[in-house]
Amino acid sequence: MESKNTSFDVVIVGGGAAGIMAALSAKFHHPDYSVAVVDRSKELGRKLLTAGAGRGNLTNSNLAHGPNGYFHGDERVISSIFSQFGYADIMKFFDDLGVPVYEEKKTNKGKIFPVIDHAKTVRDMLVDALVEKGISIFCNTAVSAVTHKSDAWSIVSDKGDLTCNNLIISTGGKTYPSLGSDGSGYELAASVDHTIIPLVVSAVPVVSKNLLSHYLQGEKMVMQATAVVGGKDMTTAVGDVMFTQYGFSGPAILDISYDVSIRIHREEKRDTAVRLSFFPNTSADEVRKILEKRWHAHPGLPVAHVLWGLLTQKASGAVCAAAEITKERVSGDLTRGEIDRIIRVLTAFTAEVTDTRGWNEGEFTAGGVDTDEVDPNSLASKKVNNLYFAGELLNVDGQVGGFNLSWAWSSGWVTGKLQGFLT
Prior knowledge:
alpha+beta, 7-stranded antiparallel sheet, 12 helices, 21 strands, elongated
């Protein structure tokens, strides 16, 4: 342990984004309190280093209009937390920290990055802020148990015991276990009588044996992707789809994977699929008109050649193969049935999903501490005094693009107020 003190007013177990923010908030709202952060990893904020592919996607401008529709979870809890520390507060926090930011326009997804495009520098500045404010840091310290007695908490770790008056658990989810997210926080929460909604990996690539992935392995293109669960359309997203040897990946797939993962892993049913369109937000009839114009102009050319320009040469060949159109087939000889097959592949290619990739490849955890058991205004436990939960540990998860990190900042800040059980 880096500090000689073992007794504190506040201890935060878990030193990721939510834990760091909870510590800074506790010190801001209670400057006379002694505060400590305990983390099993060798350094704080290791998962933060991966945000935005290492560039640091800190938040999302869409949150300026409110959080509803962007997260999976109890809307009452989410709205309450963001009403106390929302998008404008997050932006001001980083400005005060000395981190200028910008909105990435090329994807038009509202992603906010630091101007330096370097997540590690932001993480280091956050840790410096902890040190500057006199917050004790315990790294390489694995907490195995927490117990509450006589309004005090005892925290058992492999480096010795700590005690505190207020305990905040913010250990994160189960994704990226190599970065310290092993799910141990769920066991701590369960040990003090909290319900854990079954955990499934979210924002994750999906496993699907299909012809397009076979022919386009390694290719990436902007497409419209829809999750189909039990024959019903669920989430739809537009963005990059990557074709892999196991199936599909890329931002659009990660955005729709929640419904698929819940169905497969929590409900244990195998009736999920992904439907893809090479022409986002364009109807089959509109695509048919586009293609008929091209085919009529070039009736003697092979079908795949006429698709060039709309698609790459490789994608054109893959579409024809998936539609069972031979390389020699020319546009002028296409039958109505062949045209229908081509249109179907281009606008509604449906591939069965048999599984998702694992915790090492998912970005977020769906499930966690049941938010019915925490105060929606303070995130304090309704079951045990002076206990709070923050970040991904709670049953709240959002889309790719800075939403989950925003939840970490906001929930961390609110728990640091130590408001107690208010309702």
